[in-house]
């Protein structure tokens, strides 16, 4: 029996999973591009027209929804990569090695420690998702602040939407920080 016989299935599975990982990464790029486009459009409308700053309250909610999808795509990538390392690689003589190499000493020679590389990739996401929402929340707070008396029903409604947006913004930041920590923990467990 030839040495490579019986490994076509795991190799085909590896190719399919690598395609899925590429699809996840492509979706992440598209989500980030959509986030930047929406943010730019909303701020552009608000800057170009008077009295529509309430439109900014859309950004914290849309940022949260897009951030959640971004993180879900990232987790899909981690799950596929873990499956490749743990399940597929041992079924191939000599292993596949790609995932282990990606997190191994050769890549660490790039000059940045793993945690620093992760934070350098997480900080722009924090600026892009919750950062733009924080700017929108700060700007739109002028719709009901300073409090000079009881809020009108319209102001109370805007304040309620503002509070929901604040919660969504905190959740977005939390998701991104967890995403960075999860990747560190996943990679650290490979080293041990």
Walk me through what this model shows.
The protein is mostly helical and 192 residues long. It is built from six helices and no strands. The protein has helices spanning 8-48, 58-88, 98-102, 105-108, 114-140, 153-191. The radius of gyration is 22 Å and the shape is elongated. Mean pLDDT is 84; it is low at 188-192.
Q: Could you give a quick summary of the protein structure above?
A:
With 192 residues, the chain is mainly alpha-helical.
The total of helices stands at 6
> Structural class given helices, strands, pairing?
mainly alpha
Arithmetic mean pLDDT: 84
Question: What's the order of the H and E elements?
Answer: HHHHHH
Helix share bin: over 70%
- N-C termini distance: 35 Å
> What's the total number of strands?
0
List the helices and strands and how they pair.
Elements: H1 8-48, H2 58-88, H3 98-102, H4 105-108, H5 114-140, H6 153-191
């Amino acid at each position: 029996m030839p040495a490579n016989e019986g490994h076509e299935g795991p190799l085909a599975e590896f190719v399919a999973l690598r395609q899925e990982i590429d699809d996840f990464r492509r979706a992440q790029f598209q989500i980030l591009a959509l986030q930047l486009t929406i943010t730019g459009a909303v701020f552009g409308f608000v800057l170009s027209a008077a009295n529509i700053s309430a439109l900014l309250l859309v950004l914290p909610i849309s940022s949260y929804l897009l951030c959640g999808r971004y993180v879900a795509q990232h987790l899909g990538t981690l799950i596929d990569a873990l499956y490749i390392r743990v399940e597929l690689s041992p079924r191939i003589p000599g292993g596949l090695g790609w995932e282990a190499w990606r997190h191994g000493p050769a890549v660490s020679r790039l000059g940045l420690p793993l945690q620093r590389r992760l934070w350098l990739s997480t900080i722009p996401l924090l600026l892009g998702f919750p950062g733009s929402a924080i700017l929108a929340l700060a700007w739109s707070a002028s719709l009901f602040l300073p409090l000079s008396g009881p809020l009108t029903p319209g102001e109370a409604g805007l304040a309620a939407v503002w509070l929901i947006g604040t919660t969504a913004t905190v959740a977005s930041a939390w998701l991104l920080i967890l995403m960075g920590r999860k990747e560190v923990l996943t990679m650290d467990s490979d080293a041990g």
